[in-house]
Amino acid sequence: MNAPLLTIVIPCYNEEEVLPETIKQLTVLLDELINDQLISEKSRLLFVDDGSKDKTWSIIYKHGLKDNKIKGLKLARNAGHQNALLAGLFAAKNQSDCLVSIDADLQDDIAVIREFLMRFSEGFEVVYGVRRERKTDTFFKKHSAQGFYKLMTFMGVNLVYNHADFRLMSKRAVEALEQFNESNLFLRGVVPLVGFQSTSVYYDRKERMAGETKYPLRKMLSFALDGITSFSVTPIRLISLMGFVSFLVSFLFGVYFFYLKFSGQTQTGWTSLITSIWLIGGLQLIALGFIGEYIGKIYKETKRRPKFVVDIDTFNLGVPEDVESPKEGEHLVDYNSLSKSN
Ligand code: UDP
Ligand code: MG
Which residues line ligand 1 (CB under 6 A)? Predict the structure, then answer.
């Protein structure tokens, strides 16, 4: 078999601080892999600029002019990590035999990609990068992340424990992924659903080389909520359970109240009355909140909005000659404030 054509897809959002180093390290790796004849010399790096507000795109673009292994895909606005990743995978899949996705901050060990390729050559179509331990994470990140995996398992969602979005997929697997038409695509949950032969490779996760995390608490919570509500109906079942339990409890209370009434101690009613008003009110609100979340999902799905809009695609179309290379500080539009409105 000929050496497979590999595309490494790297979503980047405001990564100007870390990007030059990332490009350097990945280029070196790609060259080594080509030299060792593990991959075809047509293999590429595809950087997806997810509507960054800093110099990310101009860095990608300029490196692309010097080295034709470096390609760029610039999204018209911030679509979020998952969608940026999908944009890259879908743009590159026709010209690739296998695709690796990795974060721009190089927290994941790029040397592991070699092992991904070995597994791929053994016939595995999906190879998950799994973190061995979380030494480099803050206490908060570690526990919130592990809590998330446990919660997801409890909710009945099949996830690969401690696997983020560092993985290899074959062209076929990406094509299958594309058939999942939902707008709220939760990659870590969907990839196992795609099926195909899969395996895991273990590695130690490092600290971010430079720049700050692009996943503040707000985004982490919305990511977790998205993951749960786009995959699991357990919350709805919990509501039914809660409703059942509260019915049972109020039934018992009712018996107790009748007992009080018939034994002549009736003026004690206020406490239990006010408590039950608050209790039922709270339960109803929680229930409405969850139901609302699902209705929100239905609403978004029915709109069938595109998951991303591609602005420039030097991967498929080459570098357009009539376009000047972007000046520093261009793309200062606040894409973030736009993306919040969906
Ligand atoms: N990212 C993105 N769009 C976003 C947020 C993040 O493309 O809206 C990219 C980011 O540039 C990085 C990857 O997603 O390559 C993971 O983000 P980060 O490293 O900040 O997350 P963490 O490792 O802290 O969970
Ligand atoms: Mg990171």
Answer: 11-13, 15, 50, 78, 80-81, 84, 103-105, 107, 213-215
CA dihedral 184, 187, 188, 191 (to 10 degrees): 120
CA distance 165 to 175: 17
Note the pTM of the prediction, 2 decimals.
0.77
Encoded tokens for 235: 């919350």
Residue with the smallest CA separation from ligand 1 atom 14 is 81
Q: In this predicted model, what pLDDT tens digit does every residue of 40-95 receive, in sequence order?
A: 999 999 999 999 999 999 999 999 999 999 999 999 999 999 999 999 999 999 99
Name 128's bridge partners.
Answer: 167, 200
> Minimum-distance ligand to the CA of 17?
1
Residue located nearest, by CA, to atom 24 of ligand 1? 213
Q: What is the C-alpha to C-alpha distance for residues 149 and 144, in angstroms, rounded to an integer?
A: 9
